[in-house]
Batch of 3 targets.
Target 1
Amino acid sequence: MTSPKTNTLRGGLIQMALKSSTDNDPETIRQAMIEAHIPLIEQAGEAGVQVLCFQEVFTQPYFCPSQDEKWYDSAEPIPNGPTTQLMQDYAAKYEMVIVVPIYERDDVTGIYYNTAAVIDADGSYLGKYRKTHIPQVSGFWEKFFFKPGASDWPVFQTRYCKLGVYICYD
């Protein structure tokens, strides 16, 4: 669906509760969350949404109240991981920019980040933003899981707009 060019940008946000028990392994949880998001992604695309955003680390629970090492297994590479690649397909199908916040494992360094990939409306990967400000207070052990990003604030030129991304505490 090609969206008409106007001065109005149609945005969409998807946020939902966890769709699988945290007793399950991270891949089972990821699959359940993806399956729950797909109908809403399709609904957004059919409604002409031009920029669609998801919640922080949308494929997993907010696991930072724990220090359970099992959550390291939920990290994926960007852009070559399964979630980013799937969202590239949906972005192209619906000509929709998608901001994809996931738990990233850098394939080169092995470092873990709280990251949002930005996918353009043709399905191309534009880049990513890594959360810069990582809080560490009692009950929120984010530094156990995430390293801070490089503190740059990229602006992505998408088909529809210039887009900046930040994550939660940033």
Target 2
Amino acid sequence: TNVAQAAWPDLRFRNADHQRELAPKLKQIPRSHPRIFIRSDSDLDAVRQRIRSNPNVAKAYGYLLKWAKSDHYYENLWATPLQLQAAVVAYRLENRDPRIKRHCIKIMDFLVKTDGDSWTWPRMAKGLAFAYDWMYDDLTPAQRLKYGERAVHCAKECYKTWRHTDFSNHLYLEYGPILYVGVGIYGDGIDDKTVRQLALDGLELLLKHFVTGHDYVNMGDGGWQESMSYNAFFTYEFAQLVELWSSASGENLWEDFYGLDGEAHFQAYNLRPFDEHRVHVADMGGPSAVDSQILAYMPLVGRRRPDGLARYWSDWLIAGSERRAEEGNKYALDGHKFWPYVLWYDPTVPVVKPEDLPMAHIFRGYGWASMRSSWEKDATFALFICSPTW
């Protein structure tokens, strides 16, 4: 369905008035590196302290570090860029460990020589821009040029993909990551004109479409109209974009934004009591367990809003990964899954458990009403849907 409708530099629904309004914000992008999620190595000191003091963070970091010190990565482009991000986080937390650096470079070189598609070009753009930014001081000028140019190329390839509606997971996954290239490489002398346009397009999408779209659909209650699996599929990308711009620009989008509130409620209220599988609404295939992709944003939402149920759910997902590993799932403890938990988990937020919640919850933006008789496995459960949107 992703038929090419145009190509760089054309973008459906680009608004010239919006871009003129947003252009002054580009001055907020720092000229130093890193600028994505952190501003200096000292920003990681609090993370290192949590690793030392919190057993859950220490355990998650152990899984991440064990993998990062190996030389193994998946050549499936859905996963490779995610693994690069994880390796780079471990690299900085380990004070620029040379062994982990070799692992990062190996993955980056693979992404330079391997082509993607409508789903994976954006993942590659994000991974390369992230690594370029966090490793900037440790790359030679030739390496910066090579990886920076490749990140720009990957981002430009995204423009060949149909620009979906603001209410489709496709848009966030297929276009959202261009902002990493626009921010991470901005002003560095690598195709500056293109990078500036990527920054403007990414910022317009984030502020004029993604944030407003989520405020409309979520309304502070949690979730997304496309189903639980699609919500897990893309929401991490959106949440991390909110953090990207907030951390780089100093403009705290989290402060007044409520479109990711209630994400943990969406999980808690819409799992079947007897097996903790997602309700099967508008999902492909049969009912399935909670998706580990939620771990890529739940700790961030728990920290920034702050949300005690999101903290509980983050821990629940770690325990669930360990349980699935014991049951024979060989991918359950893949180390690259844990870097968002390590980076953002906030153990100071008071925990809220599902059993502390009311027995019913209304998701106003898309017309779901979930209710149960208790929080036990034998509870009577019902979900009513009267949705104003598909």
Target 3
Amino acid sequence: MAAVAEYFDVDKSQFWQQIIPSHQPAILRQAVKHWPSVVAAGKS
């Protein structure tokens, strides 16, 4: 079984230019770190 590619702190440009065209599964780490619920959870 092939490993799934992991990406960290992906920006919009990288997502559309690199990840989408690959047509492969991807793990996006830190993709939602700015969401209010994630920020609030980090403070508790």
